[in-house]
Amino acid sequence: MEESYQAAVRRERMQSIQALNFELKYMIVGHTTAFQEAFESFLRLAENRTRSLFEAAYRPMAKEAAEPVKELFTDISLYILGAETTVENAVLRFFDSLFPLVYSRLINPGITDLSEDYTECLRLTRQDINPFGHYSKNMVTELSKSLWASRMLSQALSLGTEVINTTEHAALTKECSRALVRMQYCPHCQGLTLIRPCVGYCLNVMRGCLASVSELDMQWREYISTLEYLTNEMGASHDLEIALTGIWNSINEAILHAQLNGPQLSATVDKVCGQPKQQEGNLSSGHIVPLKKATEAQTLVLAHASLNNRRREFINYMKRSRTFYASIAERLCDGDLVMRDSSTCWNGEDVVESYTSRVVSSGLKAQINNPELKVRGLDPLISNLIDKLQNFNQLDAEKAKLKLERWSSRDTGSGGGRSEELETSGDCDDEDGCQGSGDRIHTAGKCVFSGHIQSLEIPMCHS
């Protein structure tokens, strides 16, 4: 019978804790789902807009650029979800793949032989001559700020769910099970089925049983502060939506920069990789079609507003849960479990008018003086959770600031020796080989390719 009662109290305690956790878990899981749906939506919009850029403005390379674009956004998605990768690696890998296409389809569209060796040489050359100027570096910096905050928030939400699930299923010790049976079912042996435990008695038993769980209190409070910081960052300077939807513009500016410096790039590439076979005659860069962005913009605004509303609702609720683990014993002893409006209650041995033993406070150390049960130490599962929270909570505003400052001081290319040289107005002399095919003439704020004037809704050229 005692074993049956112990099984019953373990089941009841788990159900009681699950009931307490329900709203908190619902908010965290719900926001996790909303966050994932939102960033996936923004990723799709950003990828579609980038694809549209190539289809409309750089059609000769649009088909071949589809795979690098797909890989870039896949890498971004994996980074946000916590994969062991970096934004810098994703962006630079994209530009490594993009340069051979820009060089052979836009700067020198007459190239007919683009072998694997020549393509690989172009990829390696990009790292040294930095053909995309500061635009690739700026793209790394801007995305790193936003995606870092999103990545950390994603990890924070996963950690919050893990904390709740672990505390729901934390095993009760034998001492705890016996104390719960004595508190709830021993009166039945005397025929006292309606008598309930005294409030102080219940608090001692619950605080002893949940001593390990209550040790989460300090780190949980810090976790909520970190969560609030990340949520604010997501809605401020590290806005995920703005960063993702601005990718197409960064890529466009980078390609324009490479085209403007095409002659210098060609001269350098010829020295390093040799001169590939070229078709005679000047090839057109293709007809340009204006981009249609109204529907995407409307969808983006709605998704942005929805996420911001959920974000505010979520963090306001989480701030109210700061004391959740400090007060969990009190919540379990509240309501129908104990006698509050009666002159008598159960103290573990008899029916009394009041509980006279000392009522200990929450926490592991306080249980030394607990008169109802012995607490032998910290639950290993809870100890592991505390370590995880502590490691995560080491994130603070100053560390974030230092991390982001490092991005702004880094150079993009591994060599970078010619980056300053290539960030010029595009002027060159005959020795630089300015009369090659695919030359760009910069006049009156318009870009001319082989006699075709480009006009596009995107700010393609600069006067």
From TrEMBL:
InterPro entries: Glypican, Glypican_CS. It is found in: Cell membrane. Its main location: membrane. The keyword Ubl conjugation does not apply. Keywords: Cell membrane, Glycoprotein, GPI-anchor, Heparan sulfate, Lipoprotein, Membrane, Proteoglycan, Signal. Residues 408-433 are annotated as: Disordered. One of its GO terms (cellular component) is cell surface. Residues 422-433 have a biased composition (Acidic residues). Cell surface proteoglycan. This is Glypican-5. The lineage of its organism: Eukaryota, Metazoa, Chordata, Craniata, Vertebrata.
